[in-house]
Automatic annotation (TrEMBL):
Protein name per the record: Putative sigma-54 modulation protein
Pfam families named among the record's database cross-references: Ribosomal_S30AE
Length: 100
């Protein structure tokens, strides 16, 4: 799967990009028709501690899934987002396989 990481208002380090790639590669075992993923990492300028936002857009044939999470760290936000995407992809796979 092709993963594009976009950092908004900061520069992203290689370790975080590798973490995103590894975590999103795991999604392919739930639904193997994932075409690509766009990951937007944003930092909000607020006094709130949970100012890291991870937005993940998954492209599958015929549909796009978008999940947005806000947490204290990017790793936590990506983890929560990918768990949500796992549930979405499993639902989609069950829906498609029930029509066959």
């Amino acid at each position: 799967m092709k993963v594009s990481v976009h950092a908004v208002n900061f520069t992203v380090d290689k370790k975080l990009v590798d973490f995103v790639q590894m975590r999103l590669d795991k999604l392919e075992k739930y639904y193997d028709k994932v075409v690509s993923a766009d990951v937007f990492l944003k930092v909000e300028n607020t006094s709130d501690k949970e100012n890291k936002i991870a937005e993940i857009k998954i492209n599958v044939p015929g549909d796009d899934f978008l999940v947005k999470k806000q947490c204290k760290t990017f790793e936590e936000a990506i983890e929560l987002s990918s768990e949500s995407l796992e549930r979405l992809l499993v639902k989609r796979k069950e829906k498609i396989s029930s029509h066959i």
